[in-house]
Design brief:
34% of the residues lie in helices and 22% in strands. By secondary structure, it is an alpha/beta fold. It has one domain (4-222): Rossmann fold. It has a 7-stranded mixed β-sheet, with helices on both faces. This is Methyltransferase type 12 domain-containing protein. Pfam families: Methyltransf_12.
């Protein structure tokens, strides 16, 4: 398993280099996810939000800015990544980062963005059950994962230094995992069909979500 403490400082640069094939800056993919999250999470509500496996906090910080009334927790096992995230989020009052989240604190929404392909297959059920335990009744877990059916995705993962031990997961296998954990699927779709295209083309993706050609997929899970 990759030690992300070793990649915390160079994370953005390494990710940006791996994504050059898409012709987009690495931040594009975080803003893309924010568009999807904003369609699910209301801005005017004081939700408790968690970004699980947040790395250096790129997406977490965007979440905190997009939902200013929410209290946002960024969690990661990498202490060095948490240090970088805290520096990057200086001045934001509604976000904090931790390597040890409280089991007593529950969340309305838990975002898990491109995390599970870094989790050993034998540990995935235990990890998802831990996430489930952090969810409030009526809350939602929002999963983003790479789609192994997309050849461009497979190539990019193979070139990324911190994905060298990663095992990307078929959506049907992830759906079986969620069922095994007693979670219900509230939404599922493939995403990122046109990552190099103007925003107008992304409207077409709403019609293509059933097709297993997107670079990633998104799942919305409930208790």
């Amino acid at each position: 398993m990759v030690n992300f403490d070793d990649h915390a400082i160079t994370y953005r640069k390494s990710l940006g280099h791996s994504l050059m094939l898409f012709g987009q800056k690495e931040s594009f993919f975080d803003f893309y996810k924010m568009d999807l999250l904003s369609a699910i999470i209301s801005k005017g509500v004081a939700y408790d939000l968690m970004d699980y496996g947040c790395g250096v906090g790129k997406l977490t910080i965007l979440i905190a800015k997009e939902f200013p009334k929410a209290k946002v927790c960024g969690y990661d096992i990498s202490a060095e990544s948490m240090r970088v995230a805290e520096e990057e989020s200086a001045g934001l009052k509604n976000v904090f980062f931790t390597t040890a989240p409280s089991n007593e604190q529950k969340y309305d929404f838990i975002i898990v963005a491109n995390v599970f392909h870094h989790v050993e297959p034998i540990e995935r059920k235990e990890t998802l059950l831990k996430i489930k335990m952090l969810l409030k009744p009526g809350g939602k877990i929002i999963i983003f994962e790479h789609n192994p059916l997309n050849p461009v995705t497979r190539y990019i993962v193979s070139q990324c230094p911190f994905d060298k031990d990663a095992e990307i997961i078929l959506r049907r296998k992830f759906l079986k995992l969620t069922a095994d954990c007693g979670l219900k699927t509230d939404g599922k779709k493939y995403i990122l069909f046109f990552p190099w295209s103007p925003k107008i083309f992304r409207k077409m993706e709403k019609l293509l979500g059933f097709m297993p050609l997107g670079a990633q997929y998104m799942l919305v899970l409930t208790l």
